[in-house]
Here is the input.
Amino acid sequence: MQAEIVTTAFSNKDIPPPGIPEVVLAGRSNVGKSSLINKLAGKKGLAKTSSTPGKTQSINFYRFNRAFFIVDLPGFGYAKVGKSASAAWKRLIEAYFRDRSVISMVLHLVDARLQPTKLDLELSEWLDFLEVPRLVVATKADKLSGNEKVNQQRIISSAFGGKPVILASAVTGIGCKEIWIRMVESASSASSVE
Ligand code: GTP
Ligand code: MG
Here is the structure.
């Protein structure tokens, strides 16, 4: 596996022109987006993570095997950054999604332990509106017992109108193989911009 960071975009003008296919990780702050990238890459310090929400403040493009990008977004809904900063992130994220036909899939990360929040549902509606292929990934599943895993998978799936949900953990690696397969499939059937 070869994984490297290529671009960090703090503002609209830093967003690179579309090229190879992109798989995007979206979800609330602290849900584990950056940690999952590190697990998929097999490199602990590749994406910066923190137990404090609001760690990722830029859009980060990680190139995997020279074939596609995994794009790490700033988390949604972190109140403490203040209204103006969260409005700026929203603008940045919206600018990124504009005319981004190279996006082959969005992984919508949610916390496996929780009932999806209002913010999770809003993000889901917005992704519906954008009509991008999507996979719901319930992270931190290592925190759940076997029974809880089954129950939470059902609860989360029904909150999203019956969409399939993959249980995953950046600690134990469960779910990562399936996520990897789905990402590679979507990226290899997606079109690049020359
Ligand atoms: P923002 O950048 O703020 O949007 O957060 P993020 O979604 O990138 O979360 P990040 O990867 O920084 O992880 C947040 C916290 O959750 C860190 O303390 C991680 O160690 C922890 N964490 C992430 N994934 C897992 C997981 O699968 N299991 C457990 N137990 N902890 C996790
Ligand atoms: Mg992050």
Q: What stands out?
A: The chain has a mean pLDDT of 92. The first strand starts at residue 3 and ends at 9. The two ends are 24 Å apart (CA to CA). The domain at 3-193 is CATH 3.40.50.300 (Rossmann fold).
